[in-house]
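The authors assume throughout that readers already know how a fold can be written as discrete tokens. Each protein is reduced to its one-letter sequence and a matching series of backbone shape codes. I therefore recommend that a typical entry be quoted early in the introduction. For illustration, here is how one protein appears when written out as sequence plus structure tokens:
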Amino acid sequence: MATTYLTRTSWGTATNKQKFTQSFWVKRGVIGVEQVLLGVESGGSNEARVLFKADDTFEFYDYQSAYKFRKITNRKFRDCSAWYNIVLAVDTTHPTGSARVNIYINGVQETSFSTSTDPAQNLNTFYNSSGNHIVQIGRQSTGGSYFTGSMSHVNFCDGTTLAPTVFGSTDATTGEWKGNTSPSVTYGTNGYFILKDSNSVTDQSGRGNNFTVGGGTLTNLKDNPDNNFATFNPLNSWGAAVLTNGNLTVEDTGTTVGHFFTTIHMNKGKWYMEFNVDTHLNSYTAPSFLLAGTGAFQLAQIGFSSSGDGSFGISSNGRAITDGAEGAVVIPALVNNDKVQLAYDADAGKAWFGINGTYFNSGNPSTAANPYFTSTKLQNNDVVFVSLGYDGNKMSANFGNGYFGTTAVSSAGTNASGNGIFEYNVPSGFTALSTKGLNL
């Protein structure tokens, strides 16, 4: 949720204030607004923060009546489709000023800054200072600037300055930065390891430095650095709709149709996904479905469709769509809390739609019987597409995380692929739209 954050009321015992390492894995949600990953404050004019700024650059600073150090990158971080590993390594005892505060993103050191204020040698930072310091993850300590994406494997090492290779490494096959789920480190007195492969805020470092949920709802998503699930992409969109809940809930906010593509494309394989109709205001402009390949729309639209060569599906009022044009009514209009299933065979260009556990036309994706449609136009870099109508329509997607918005599926169906959690049974041979699914 947009108001979720974690908190501790104190660092505990004052320890080494000159050396520490902080590591996060984060997946961005909303962009273009300030979002704080971590904030430390004791009141007055002393604070330290780690954040994405409103222009999507990254900032790390220590402020004690004045900036003691401050780094703002030139690079912008606007990719909502991938996980970032952020490592902050601080050693103010280093003889070289520029080497005292180091920022690494996915194993690569940031060296280009719009603002670069180095700490004085042997500076005692605001980290690990004694006193009743509020430590909050996911917002600034005084409230606001909430982080709206996903976060995993948060490590803090008190008294040691570590390389990014402690927390990740480059995959020899893909060349991508992947996480080390059990880093071998010395955590020190105030160190902690939370959000390890789950939503647990209990410290896994053995130091007992637990956090609590200070507000909002902390959901245990399957999406993680080792298995990146599809979401909707705010960079590939138009219209008035907004994204929340880690870019999995879409809500219309005006009189312009909102459209979003997903972050993962596919042109082969068999894929399964589900959508909940959160708010359906009328039969013409509420959530509906479209599949398309090479045209203006590409794979699954929820909302009233426009034109688009190669688009096929079902409109909000239950009408069939072929090449972007509406035809006869083929299903009842959707109502609130309907759960729509989509099984898509990208190899064959076949798709099956269902509502609340029953596929249309007596379809059976497991046996390839009675697909809702078959089209060779759906075999070229397909992508899930969502669109809403007007006046507050809202839907939530489950690409395998096991949630519709912040509500967990009520009774998970079977899934032979072992990838993702869904409300209904995943058809045989189909899997969730994720990086693990792409490699199955």
Summary: The longest helix spans residues 435-439. Confidence is low (pLDDT under 50) at residues 283-289, 291-309.
